[in-house]
Design goal:
Layout (H helix, E strand, L loop, with lengths): L4 H56 L5 E6 L11 E10 L4 E4 H4 L3 E4 L7 H7 L7 E6 L19 E11 L3
Antiparallel strand pairs: 1-5, 2-3, 2-4, 2-6, 5-6
């Protein structure tokens, strides 16, 4: 039986062409699927990092500003504009000490309420009497905020054990 030339073409070339197209489709389809999976994995990893950093922020920050009087002082309370001298120990929420005037043997002196110190101090020292000791729990927005400072990380809540040593009134 003689097969015409056109039939040889149809029986050989067309099936090879169709198989080739099918293989190309299969490989490219799987390649894009792998790319989509890689992309999805990257998106999941980014989401975990974001949620992880949010939970870390909750772990290192305070929700609200708190003042606790540990020991009462005597005399009039410190007012905005007064020059005050304060002994303190500063720690992070987890207890890591980052600074202490006690270690230096000299209190820190500043003018209250004019922005020479973090807002938490300007608010937390007002009203203290000489000899008074307070514990201040300061949320990051009243401390060093999103930038941090030195060994203090960004968004860190701060704890200060403070003792008012003296008030030098400007009034």
């Amino acid at each position: 039986m003689d097969v015409p030339e056109g039939a040889k073409f149809v029986f050989f070339v067309v099936p090879v062409f169709l198989i080739s197209i099918g293989l190309i489709y299969f490989f490219f389809k799987n390649d894009s699927t792998l790319n989509n999976l890689d992309s999805r994995d990257e998106q999941l990893q980014e989401a975990e990092e974001i949620s992880g950093s949010q939970s870390n922020t909750e772990d290192i920050d305070f929700e609200e500003f708190k003042i606790e009087t540990i020991e009462e002082g005597e005399g009039k309370g410190a007012e905005v504009g007064d020059e005050v001298s304060v002994h303190y120990t500063g720690t992070l929420k987890d207890g890591t000490k980052f600074d202490s005037s006690y270690d230096r043997g000299e209190p820190f002196t500043f003018t209250l309420g004019i922005g020479q110190v973090i807002q938490g101090w300007d608010q937390g020292i007002v009203g203290m009497k000489v000899g008074e000791k307070r514990k201040l729990e300061i949320p990051s927005e009243l401390g060093y905020g999103e930038t941090g400072q030195g060994s203090i990380p960004a968004n860190a809540g701060l704890v200060f054990e403070t003792e008012l040593v003296s008030i030098n009134s400007e009034n």
